[in-house]
Amino acid sequence: MFLEIKEVIIGYTNPLVSEIDSSLELGEVCLLMGNNGIGKTTLIKSILGQNKLLKGEISINGKSLQKLNSNEIASQIAIVFSKAEIPDNYTVTDLISLGKYIHYPYYFKLNKTDKKEIAEIINKLNLSEYQYKKLSELSDGNLQKAFIGRSLAQNSPFIILDEPTTHLDEENKLMILSLLRNLAKSENKLILFSSHDWRLAKEFSDKIWWIKDKKLISGISEEVILSNPELIAPKILQFNEAFHAPQIDAPKLEKEMMFSYLQKNFSQDLRKIKLIFKNDFWELNSEDFYDNCHNLSEIKQSLQTLIKTSNSN
């Protein structure tokens, strides 16, 4: 295994995550997820050697992380942060070229082989038409691709990305996630990335690392989800304490959306009413009322009629 974590405890004065035992191989994509402040960034920094382990050992390509210096770690791991600063007046080519300088002093000039490789990376990322554009003129999606290009120029087998799809629209999220998976498979890279958009990101990952209750749950993505159904089961959140819900017979997602809609629009007691989702219609039933509704607006109108009739009686 390229990355091995054995009996590791991470944290500062007190442990944040304990008993971490996991491994990842080249060619795999791993999604790191968990709530804010739970230890995701600390785990990333620990893998980078920036945080001292409280216990255990991390190995990179068969070598103990504790025995590697910063240059050796950089040769093995490239990092892309979501909040990276944009250098003034830098173009796409300038940024991607920076990845080469882990191999040279800052005053060296890149040779022909380096420049050819940078051109290939730009082409691979479909950034050729933007290669001389200033970074400040790029869309969020293309800017993120440029930062990924810098990590590729490092020629490190392992790439870590901290929230690479933050602030991106849906189209660009899919583009970046597809790009990461393609890079892992075509370039035999190990890719570890964290994401709040895990419901989308899980489709592109081979493995999941989920930090929960100060433990790291890890495994094949689908197996982790099957063992932890709360990851995909919608959570019905009640914020209107005066709301008394009707009986809702519907698939989980439709039930969650119906509950959400009704509690925002009604404070009356609806417990004697039953809503059934059937063949893309909603059946609304009570003791002396029935209606067949196509959408939420029709349900709202029917309920208002029912409540008005009940009050008049």
From TrEMBL:
<dbReference type="InterPro" id="IPR003439">
    <property type="entry name" value="ABC_transporter-like_ATP-bd"/>
</dbReference>
<dbReference type="InterPro" id="IPR003593">
    <property type="entry name" value="AAA+_ATPase"/>
</dbReference>
<dbReference type="InterPro" id="IPR050153">
    <property type="entry name" value="Metal_Ion_Import_ABC"/>
</dbReference>
<dbReference type="InterPro" id="IPR027417">
    <property type="entry name" value="P-loop_NTPase"/>
</dbReference>
<keyword id="KW-0067">ATP-binding</keyword>
<dbReference type="GO" id="GO:0005524">
    <property type="term" value="F:ATP binding"/>
</dbReference>
<dbReference type="GO" id="GO:0016887">
    <property type="term" value="F:ATP hydrolysis activity"/>
</dbReference>
<dbReference type="Pfam" id="PF00005">
    <property type="entry name" value="ABC_tran"/>
</dbReference>
<keyword id="KW-0547">Nucleotide-binding</keyword>
<protein>
    <submittedName>
        <fullName>ABC transporter ATP-binding protein</fullName>
    </submittedName>
</protein>
<keyword id="KW-0813">Transport</keyword>
<feature type="domain" description="ABC transporter">
    <location>
        <begin position="1"/>
        <end position="238"/>
    </location>
</feature>
